[in-house]
Amino acid sequence: VLDRDSLFEIGRFWGRGQITMLGRLDGHPVGVLANDPHFAGGAMTAAAAEKLERFVDVCDTFHLPIVNFVDQPGMMVGTVAEKQATLRRATRALCAIEQSRVPWIAIIVRRVFGAGGAGYGRQRDLNLRYAWPSGYWGSIPIEGGVEAAHRRELEAAADPPARLAELEARYEKFASPFRTAERFGVHDIIDPRETRPLLCAWVRQAYAALPPQLGPVRRFMRP
Q: Does the structural domain 8-138+177-213 have CATH classification 3.90.226.10?
């Protein structure tokens, strides 16, 4: 998708569920975000959140538009995550995204769930959102979400696994990438082969919008 031999990964060996890279699109420098599901399923850990915040600030400081290839199952939970202040660090990362001024574009490759998935892009200014047909997103996934929402019903069922399968099948009938895309403000569901031409057209618009932003960058306090 990016220009050949232009990618340069930063921080490869920490916060490994979050990938941060510099690259070029049609010759234009950009910041690139992605998720690696081989590490913590790609979830936002404390280290991944800190890595994301730091990289977004670097791109914003040096006026580099950001491309985000999203496969984010959500925020890491549990005792260890709480001891590492994952929620606070993730909130700081989301603040960095919202405080940034550079143009964003998000390509939803697969999953976008929960508070971690909320960081797929800024909610204002030049921020475009597209999805591949493989995109699967919402507030919470059906797998696990049904168990949480119907816990008492499942505990009282004569055959909990059978009832769980029945409930999941019922919710699957309403699952539609087109309905979800509309609710998420996704501009279009595209063929993956169209990704590079779309990004090259976007990066030219992004650089045309950058001149008024040049100069020192101011940021507000974060939690």
A: yes
